[in-house]
Write a structure and sequence with these properties.
By secondary structure, the protein is of the alpha/beta class. Helix content is 47%, strand content 15%. It has a six-stranded mixed beta sheet, sandwiched between helices. The protein has a four-stranded parallel beta sheet with strand order 1-4-3-2, with helices on both faces.
């Protein structure tokens, strides 16, 4: 059976095209060999389950590996200590083929609730006895631990694991414990006094830092594409496609596989992309990106739910996207930790940035969609849409001309603060209905700040670059023209566009064409 790109559940090397993660597995094994207990917390669909499954196989010659998943335990399993011990014991009995003498009988007693005392304390006495009698050291891995993160019994279970870790030099215990999930259980608290001035500590404060990079590099992606190319002989430029995928995903595993899956299964056979050779190109990649940005998947749904649950996070992301205000990265900030934990942002040279361009587009679309019904500019984009499509392609100059006219009519008398905070958002509101369904756009993160933002529009295989900027005088504008010219070189384009938001009351609004360094620049001022 031919391999496929998988975006649903665990990936298997025999069935799926996969990145080689052997180097990561070796890093994790080094932590296990050192007897570390740690948490593998990453955002949704970041490859945690696939990594744990591969790690189980990687370790089996040296260790007894128990790979559990708390999702297989029902919510009633966490309602009481006795219910948890019974369910946990039953899972162990299903997973382990052979126990040392006496251990299986005791666990069966817990599972069947025939033991006279069923508690976490008695369970851990049996587990420690197992560790002492086992022929090999035992590694316990638990996936989806945040399934139970709100339950007191789970917190108490963590406390028992912590006690084992602290006594590991004196008594037989697990060699290593790995807890995997989205939420970082190190931040969970457990009451240690019941009086009014109760103190709290974390039952998982013994966890070592898990610094293994689980995102995919361009080299990782190229290795996976090489395997695919050996099967299909598309003639793709592997390095170019791998770099494109990495540049737009920052190596987020689900998005990497998702883009490849669209290119492999969905796009080939269309008029524009009749076969696989035509798909594995820059044009085919941008079509796949357009498709993955607009899809409704559980990853995006989860991200949007988090925005509703965490208002501070929502505010920060909104400002980062639309105003370009630099936000220093702080590992101690609660909202920053949440943003990293949920996969919204990453640390780039001590500055918080959106994790990747695809997430940026999804977030832009979400925030803009909230204003669809009330935005006059969005309505104008809908009404005027047809005049901007000439022979099936976008006429960017006409879009700028109409935007300048409409924006000036609606908001021409606003002040500097309005332009800085709302101008770029309003242009995206105007643009969205024009390209919707066929085109896509992304914001170039390297140029986005509070004064400048480069927007790249992809429409029917064509790219157009528009620099959106706040007017800071002629000298600044001339520098912007040179910067845009340099940026066009990157895309191998000879024509570019500038849209300046000018709060000077004596400004001259309109659109003009200039030539600089052999390139045509269409400049619009509002």
């Amino acid at each position: 059976m031919a391999k496929i790109f998988n975006i649903a559940g665990c990936c298997e090397p025999e069935e799926n095209y996969m990145v080689d993660i052997s180097g990561r597995l070796e890093e994790i094994k080094n932590m296990i060999d050192a007897g570390m207990y740690f948490t593998m917390n990453r955002a949704r669909q970041f490859g945690k389950t696939t990594t744990l499954t591969a790690l189980s196989d990687y370790l089996k010659t040296d260790y007894e590996v128990i790979n559990m998943d708390f999702q297989t335990m029902s919510s009633s399993s966490f309602e009481s200590e006795q219910a948890f011990v019974a369910a946990f014991s039953e899972e162990l009995l299903d997973m382990v083929e052979k126990f040392p003498d006496g251990i299986e009988k005791r666990l069966a007693g817990f599972a069947q609730k025939t033991e006279p005392v069923i508690s976490l304390q008695t369970l851990f006495k049996v587990l420690k006895s197992w560790c002492g009698k086992a022929s090999r050291k035992i590694v316990l891995m638990i996936d989806e631990v945040d399934t139970a993160s709100n339950d007191q019994v789970f917190v108490d279970f963590l406390a028992q694991l912590r006690a084992c870790y602290l006594k590991r030099r004196r008594i037989p215990v697990f060699q290593s414990v790995i807890l995997a999930g989205v939420y970082d259980v190190r931040s969970m608290k457990r009451k240690i006094r019941s009086d009014g001035d109760r103190a709290e500590n974390s039952p998982w404060n013994i966890a070592a830092k898990f610094n293994v990079d689980m995102s995919f590099s361009a080299e990782d992606i190229a290795g996976m594409l090489s395997e695919y190319e050996a099967d299909y002989h598309t003639g793709m430029d592997i390095r170019e496609i791998a770099n494109l995928i990495y540049d737009h995903t920052a190596g987020y595993p689900y998005l990497v596989s998702g883009l490849c899956k669209y290119m492999d299964e969905e796009i080939a056979g269309s008029t524009e992309f009749p076969d696989k050779s035509s798909v594995w190109t820059r044009e085919g990649f941008y079509e796949a990106e357009r498709m993955i940005v607009k899809e409704d998947n559980t990853l995006y749904q989860s991200m949007i739910r988090k925005l509703k649950l965490y208002p501070k996070l929502r505010t920060v992301l909104y400002e980062l996207l639309f105003t370009g205000k630099p936000i220093p990265y702080s590992a101690t900030s609660d909202y920053m930790k949440d943003a990293v934990m949920f996969g919204f942002i990453r640390n780039d040279k001590d500055t918080a940035v959106i994790f990747n361009q695809i997430f940026e587009s999804v977030l832009y679309n979400y925030f803009i969609s909230e204003e669809f019904t009330s935005s006059e500019l969005y309505k104008a984009g809908v009404q005027e849409k047809n005049q901007f499509i000439i022979d099936g392609y976008l006429n960017i100059r006409k879009i700028l001309e109409k935007f300048v006219e409409t924006f000036d009519y609606l908001y021409g008398d606003q002040d500097e603060t309005f332009y800085e905070e709302a101008g770029r958002r309003y242009f995206l509101l105007f643009l969205k209905p024009i390209i919707n369904g066929i085109g896509n756009y992304s914001v170039e993160s390297r140029t986005r700040n509070n004064e400048r933002m480069d927007l790249v529009i992809y429409y029917r295989g064509e790219q157009s670059v528009i620099e959106l900027k706040i007017w800071r005088g002629n000298a600044y504008n001339e520098r912007g023209e040179k910067q845009l010219s340099d940026y066009l070189d990157y895309f191998h384009l000879t024509k570019g566009y500038m849209l300046s938001f000018n709060f000077n009351k004596k400004k001259e609004i309109g659109v003009k064409e200039i030539r600089i360094r052999g390139k045509i620049l269409i400049e619009a001022v509002v």
